[in-house]
Amino acid sequence: MSGMVIVGAGQAGLQTAESLRSGGYTGSIVLLGDEPCAPYHRPPLSKGFLLGEVSDTQLYIRAPGALNRKGIQWHASARVMRIEHATRTLHLDDGSTLGYTGLCLATGARARRLEVPGAGLGHVCMLRGMADTRALAAILPHTSRVVVIGGGFIGLEFASIARRLGKQVVVLEAADRLMARVVSPQLADFFLRLHRDNGATIELGSNVSALSGNRGVVTAVHTADGRVFPADLVVVGIGVIPNGELAQQAGLACDRGALIVDACARSSSPGIVGAGDCTVRQRAGSGLLRLESVQNAIEQAKSAAASLLGEHRPYPALPWFWSEQYEVRLQMAGFAAGHTQAVVRGDLATSTFSLFYYVDGELCAVDSINRPQDHLAARKLLELGRLPTPQQAADPNFALTSLIPA
């Protein structure tokens, strides 16, 4: 029996399924996941899970029983190999086929692998899925010298956890600043100080050339300039690759492996939508944009479900994101890329401030460090277009909420 099929049982896939049902769809909904476990939250994997603050059961977004009660047929360890457009049929790796009326591709992304000699040694770990984290959790108690390759969010979140566990930590970042792709120089400098103040060694401009080991287990990381960093655990966090192979095989419009969708999550083919980390969308004035966040996955999935139901529901253009490192909570709203002015609200020398970013005098983004009130106000102001001037943002006595209509 044909119905709605979602390929990918992560945050975006699950949200699509649930939004279809809550949107009034009464037909068959099949959710295909390539992992053996039920849909789970990914953010805690690089945060509280490794500290024992989050249990396995707390990771699950929904238990299988809850999906069944909603009439969502969840299939674990199911891999789709091919989409046949003409007959609206999916071909699975076990030889079975599955027809669909509407299809959502929510295949996510996978960790980018380190391509250097020795990358396949034991105790070289990724941190993307539950299997990765469980493997890392089993190794971590028996190690003391940790090298993190990559100074992005995942690498730095893990570095902060390793330091809290008393490990010696070295972070090797190829760029000249931390999180260079996503945060401003001012914020990068703050996190550099934060990690160094907490005892981590941060090495910028460091390109890894090889890993060496003994008896199949890593013992050192080598950089292109000849330095050697001893290690009994290496964690690689150098970005992700969208799982776009299925979309490409189906002849759907893609960009650098990611499925291109519009503001309503529709692909280039009628009846097929996409949501989450496997997609890229058009952003006014700046070309194609790929967002990797829970918020984007959820909102895009709601739009994808609406499109499958024949409705028009563009998803919100404003992204927001968070990261936790040591005792610091970073909350981000908007797009800071290309800003021409950064205004500080608070004191950069403390762990409580916000950075307001402007393009030609107009607010485009706000990054907040331990100031949730600023973050919540900024999200609302950016959504409404009620933007504070740089002078208002810099004034700690100015109430940002005064710009929000009652």
Automatic annotation (TrEMBL):
Signal peptide: none annotated. Keywords: FAD, Flavoprotein, Oxidoreductase. GO terms for cellular component: cytoplasm. Its cofactor is FAD. SUPFAM superfamilies: FAD/NAD(P)-binding domain, FAD/NAD-linked reductases, dimerisation (C-terminal) domain. It comes from the Bacteria. GO terms for molecular function: oxidoreductase activity, acting on NAD(P)H. Residues 320-403 form the Reductase C-terminal domain. The keyword Acetylation does not apply. The keyword Secreted does not apply. Residues 4-301 form the FAD/NAD(P)-binding domain. Gene3D superfamilies: 3.30.390.30, FAD/NAD(P)-binding domain (3.50.50.60). This is FAD-dependent oxidoreductase. It comes from Xanthomonas euvesicatoria.
